[in-house]
Target: C-type cytochrome
Amino acid sequence: MKYLRTVSLIVAVSYVGIVSAAATDGATLAQRGNGHGAAPCMACHAPNGGGMAAAGFPRLAGLPDAYLRKQLEDFANGSRANATMQPVAQSLSDDERDAVADYYSKLPVPAQVPAPPLKNDVAQSGQMLATRGRWSENLPACEQCHGPGGIGVGDHFPPLVGQSATYIANELHAWQGGSRHNDPLQLMQHVAANLSDADITAISTWYAAQPMAPKEQQP
Model:
């Protein structure tokens, strides 16, 4: 009897260890969730991490590890408000957030879906704001922080190219309205406050229409 209890204990401990390991595996979390509040990431961000443009769910594949980790923390603590992501982030442990961020940062960037052609006035306005800004209103160019072509710079300024117009516009409105306030030195809050709705449409559609550089796009 004592032997059976010992064997049962060993099996139970082993099972817990297997479950715990699975729960902190990034691929498992992305495909199945963690079973206690965090839904599968792929349900909104697609199996390849490319996001769902029509719904405004962003691409995660290929984004910097540290950036993804910070966004999960900020969703959990409320500095980036989102009714879908907040409960998911709060249901992930620290190890699980690390695992998810690491997993998506290492995924290849999916092939880009061509965006609809832009009207000339929208294209001109979007390009001007992205590359030159509007200094008469102390509005810097987007690429001063996000890099030429919106390729992203470091861990704090993510790529804009390769994201959908819906997602970019939603985030600019979130910065503008204060539901997102997790930017370094409040840079994005200042930028968004100086944008009109027409500006936001121009910037978001212009970036969504820009092709990714070959080294960034890895189908």
Observations:
- The domain at 56-110 is CATH 1.10.760.10 (Cytochrome Bc1 Complex; Chain D, domain 2).
- The radius of gyration is 20 Å.
- Residues 73 and 94 are 9 Å apart (CA to CA).
